[in-house]
Amino acid sequence: MAEDLYSALGVSRSADQKEIRRAYREKARKFHPDVNKTPGAEETFKRISEAHDVLSDPETRSQYDRFGENFRQYAAADAARSSEQPRRSGGTRYTWSGGGAQSVNWEDLFGEGFGGFGRGADHTAELEITVEEAYRGGRRTVQVASPYGGAQEYTIDIPAGAVDGQRLRIAGAGGAGADGQDGDLLVTLRVKDSKRYRLSGADIETDLPISPWEAALGADVSVPTPGGPVTVHVPPGSSTGRRLRLRGQGMPRRGQPGDLYARVKVVVPRTLSNKEKELFEQLRDESSFDARRGS
C-alpha cells in the first residue's frame, strides 16, 4: 500500500499551506536525484512531489481527504454528477493539449516564489514526455486548457536528463493575485516508456535482437541508444534475456549518468534457404546440446 501523502511529507493532516511548502522544499532538496544517489531516493522524490502537487492545491487536497488514494477516479465520477461550475480561486490542475508559441521564464525546483499574502494561487499540470525527450531535452509547445474556459499557450524548455516527477515552473501563469502578483504554473514531467526504451531510475533498458549464430558464436553488434548507436560485444553462448551493460549510456545526470542495458533477444529466421536448412540439420545431427536439460 502506498504511503499516505501526508506521511510522505512528514506533516499532520491539519498542516497549513506554509507547513506543506516548507516540508516539501526540505525533502525535495534532500531526495532530488541530482543530489541524492542512494537507492530509492528517486522514488521518494517522486512521491513527495506527488504529495505536494495534491496537498498544495485546496481542491485536490479536499478530494484526497474525502476519497483517499483513488481520489482522482472518485472525484471525476463525483464531478460528472454535478453541474456546479468551478470557482476561480485556489490551486487548479490543468491538462495539456495542442500547440502554439509563447516564451516563458523558468525557475528550477528550488527557486523562490511559492507565494505570500495576496499572491495568486499556484496552479499545477502534468506533461508526458518520452524517454528520448527526457534524455535529449528540448522544447515543447503546449496549450493549457483551463476549466474556467479559454486557453493559454506556452513553450516549455525540457532539460536534458529530465526526471520523472520533476517539476518546472512558468512564472506568473497561475491564478490572478489580489496584489497584482499572479501565481505560477507548476508543471510535473511524467516520463513514459517508448516503443524502444524502458526507463528505470537513471537506467535505460532496450531489446537487442540477434541471430542464432551471433548468440552461439558471439559478435560485435550495434545497439541504438538515445545518444546514438553504440557497438557492444555479445559474448558467445548468449541466450534470450541476457543483459549487457553499457556503462554511462543511460540518462545524463549531473555527476553520475545512468547505464543502458541491452537485453538479448535471439531471433530465428522465419524462412530458410535450402543451404541454411541443410546446415541447421547438420548442426542438429552433430550437436549434443539439449535446450531443455536442467530447465
From TrEMBL:
Q: Identify the stretch(es) annotated as Disordered.
A: 77-97, 227-258
Q: Supply the InterPro entries for this chain.
A: DnaJ_C (IPR002939), DnaJ_domain (IPR001623), DnaJ_domain_CS (IPR018253), HSP40/DnaJ_pept-bd (IPR008971), J_dom_sf (IPR036869)
J domain: which residues? 4-68
Gene3D superfamilies per the record? Answer: DnaJ domain, Urease metallochaperone UreE, N-terminal domain
Q: What is this protein called?
A: DnaJ C-terminal domain-containing protein
Q: Which organism is it from?
A: Ornithinibacter aureus
Starting at the broadest rank, the lineage of the source organism is: Bacteria, Bacillati, Actinomycetota, Actinomycetes, Micrococcales
